[in-house]
Fold:
Amino acid sequence: MDVLLVEPSRVGLSILGKMLERRGDVVHPFQDGVEALAFLRKTPGVDVIITSFETKTICGLELCWEARVLSESRGPIHVIVMSADREDAKLIEALDSGADDFFHKPPIEAELNARLRAAERMVRTQKEILRMAQTDPLTGAYNRRFFFDRMRAEIEEGGGRPLSLVMLDIDHFKSVNDRYGHDVGDLVICQVAGQFARREGVFGRIGGEEFAWLLPDCDEAQAVEKAEAVRRIIERTPVSSDQGRFSVTSSFGVAALGPGMGLAELSKRADMALYEAKRSGRNCIGLGSQVEPRRLSA
Structure:
């Protein structure tokens, strides 16, 4: 695990660091609480914080509070507070401030290892619960709710930078289900979704055979170029099933975020662009900035 370790004593920091390294953890050691807090804010991979109650410049409990705030947006962080003070009040205050666990200094290595094994189980379980809440079980793409949450955040925090939304729909998908069955239909959905697995941006399944692709820092022309690249791949990649090989195509709608535009209007523009693409023959790209879709050469 990635462990942020905060201990004002150089000797204590070294002892704890060696214990963690023997477990195979990646350790980020700090004596100063402010420096540790700055590192935490810019490092999303931290799984566990072990902080002394007594730290330099800020109280260790501030790290607890910050971890709780950050965990709401980026996933679970397990917080363990340690103190040389044996008073029960310190334990109660730490837990009330958001700590998950507490131990007294100096640490007993076997006890620390047991607490960290428990922390690892909790973090792993919390991450799995979060993944299940955010993703579509068939494709692994973001589900509708989480996709639009991410989209809303990108719009609100974008600061005026370019942002484009691509909506796409598998053409004649009902015919695929009717002819080959729903198992093959699921295979088609997964194959199309798989084309986005390693691409930039935020990708989600927002309906049965409908997907959405959010592209930060892309204007309309750049988004069209990226959408066209995927459209060609989908068109040229046959689906192989027990019932034979066949091809599928997809229609796309592209819309760019304009001044004063919010989530609802951007979504509507992309959806209208997708509708225009389907109305114009499918397997093409419709533009939110135009009434008629622009057909691009295959």
Summary: Confidence is low (pLDDT under 50) at residues 291-298.
